[in-house]
Amino acid sequence: MVEEGQPDPEFEAILNVVDPNRDGQVSLQEYMAFMISKETENVHSSEEIENAFRAITAHQDRAYVTKDELYANLTKEMADYCVARMKPYVEPKTERPIPNALDYIDFTRTLFQN
After folding, report:
1. Where's the EF-hand domain (predicted)?
2. Where are the domains of the chain?
3. How is domain 46-113 classified at the CATH fold level?
4. Biggest CA pair distance of the chain
């Protein structure tokens, strides 16, 4: 219990997570970063996230996910977040992009670098 007008350390810790720039508003990007951190707080490696993406692909042995698969298996907001941040997948042998394919491996490794 804190006195009126005094900062609550527990609430301050929550604000540090959901509004890190302390502008008094939670942007969609801040919200999504918070939700991803909550969803992945017990995840210990990018490999675990890659396995989750692999599980939603039609063919579990491929290194990309399609936009349709993301929208079919995630909330619209989470799928939008992924689509906006995932690079197009380029087939290593031909060096050509595959239509509507997104590189979830690069995406997850980037998440774990930050």
Report:
1. 6-41
2. 46-113
3. Recoverin; domain 1 (1.10.238)
4. 65
